[in-house]
Design a protein that fits this description.
43% helix; alpha/beta; 403 residues; 14 helices; 60s Ribosomal Protein L30, Chain: A; single chain; 17% strand; Helix Hairpins
Amino acid sequence: MSAMWLHVGQCGNQIGKEWWQILTSEKGLHAEADRYPFFSPDGQLSAICVDSEPKVVRKLQKQVRRGSFRETNLIVGKRGRGNNWAYGYHGLHSASEKNLLERTMESLRKEVERRDCYYGTVLFHSLSGGKGAGLSSRLCEAIRDEYSLGQILSVTVAPHQAGESPLQHYNSLLCLSWLQRYVDGVLLFQNDAVLRRTAALLGKKAPVSDMQPQVSLSAMNTYVASCLAGLLYPLKAFTTGSGISLGLEPWELLRSVCPMPTMKFLHIAQACKSLPCLQHYSTSVLAVARSYQEDTFLLSRDSVLRKLKQAYRCVPWNPFPLSCWTDSLNIVEPGCHSHSLTVCAKHSSSAELLQQVMARAEAMYKTNAYLHWYWRYGCEEEDFQQAFEMLCSVADDYSRLGE
């Protein structure tokens, strides 16, 4: 069962570059059988890269040297989308540039037809940009309509709370509501949290207490990609008797951690020297341990799961909140003494993000700030009202997890 890998916008393609560099490096995809979830039968990547400007996509194409992107799957336009959800969602009104949505869906259809089985799409994007938020929202809607039986897993990056664009709160509000409607699960990375985790891994500290540590964007993207590799790289447990990977990892992840359709937002972290002490309640947790001493880890499995259950404050009403996958290969840091523990959890901190997005978007909405840019490109008041209502309901569900 194979997946399509769809990268949209600058952020989605930059993370895609790090993701494919890990998978196509000399240390990645050791077994030919592990190539199945990522490559078409002709040896080219099952990836589609979309952006309204060519720079980032062409850079990705050049730097992923051992992976071959199909030229027709590199879909670029000639102008940006102004960091505007409505512009990205509805697209250009001019017929001079063929619609990015149509070109992407055509490439997706052809890529699906090359495989013997289609099970879903993994979408990489951000919440803040015109393409990452707007075009991705429209693509989720179109993919759900065209392939209703397939699943959609979104890898979503939320912007810094301090601000990256004056329109980011509107864009995040609308995109989150579309994700809630059309996808099956959202692996949510918040830039502020990613920056702190990356800084901790690199051993960097903020120069002043009220300032963020200095970490490059590339390092942050590498951290996100390594978390994804820890979760989604093929495991022996999901291979056939002949050892061929079916690419079940993304969909088994959804089954294990995201079974409830009303709550789809998931959080990922790599456990380094210690487990986090969360102030939030978790309904479900998946730990993926990769170590050359796989058998040794299994001997201490019960102890690790007890610590995870305590650290992630698993709700008492779920009798089986923890799942654990193990494998002997650590793709991020291969070697005879390497090991990693990647944890994916659904916990109540999602309520805080949703409430922050709604509060800031509502403050702007009440003063009619920047709304003319959304009306101009086809957005309507109903889009905002439905988004506020939907996210308010979801935030309430997450807030009550510990009850």
